[in-house]
Amino acid sequence: MKTVKLIYKMQPGTKEKFLDDIYGRYIPEKTRNEKGCISYDFYSSCDRDEILLIEKWENDEALEKHIEMPHLKELRKLKDEYKIETVPAEI
Fold first, then answer.
1. Max Cα-Cα span within the chain
2. Where do the structural domains in the chain lie, given as residue ranges?
3. CA 77, CA 90: separation in Å to the nearest integer?
4. Whole-angstrom Cα distance, residue 40 to residue 52?
5. Which residues contact 58 (CB under 8 A, 6 or more apart)?
6. Would you say 13 and 4 are in contact if contact means Cβ atoms under 8 Å apart?
7. For residue 70, which of 33, 35, 31 has the smallest C-alpha distance?
8. In a structure prediction context, what are the per-residue pLDDT tens digits for the chain, which is 91 residues long?
9. Please, are residues 51 and 43 in contact by the beta-carbon 8 Å criterion?
10. Residue 49 in contact with residue 12, Cβ under 8 Å?
């Protein structure tokens, strides 16, 4: 199993709009329906402009295929639009 943990560092005041955008475009749902996806969940911090993403995949091959999916490309565009910095999570 392959686990990816990322922190999305948001611009102040943009977190709720970003979450509305990704859920409104069904990006998490589309990802969860991919072959090899075990889980894909966003967790919002109550007191910071951060979101934690934890995704679990059956193997590296499934994760590599995910990286090329159209909805992930859409997520990347949104991250650019919202000026989000993504860093590995140490949890």
1. 36
2. 2-88
3. 25
4. 11
5. 1, 2, 36, 37, 38
6. no
7. 31
8. 999 999 999 999 999 999 999 999 999 999 999 999 999 999 999 889 999 999 999 999 999 999 999 999 999 999 999 999 999 998 7
9. yes
10. yes
Q: What are the pLDDT digits (tens) for 32-44?
A: 999 999 999 999 9
From residue 51, give the alpha-carbon distance in Å to each of 9, 24, 58, 79, 82.
7, 17, 23, 12, 13
> 3-class DSSP state for residue 66?
helix
Q: Is the pTM of this model over 0.90?
A: yes
Fold (CATH) for 2-88 = Alpha-Beta Plaits (3.30.70)
Dist. CA 37–CA 53, nearest whole Å: 14
3-class DSSP state of 19: helix
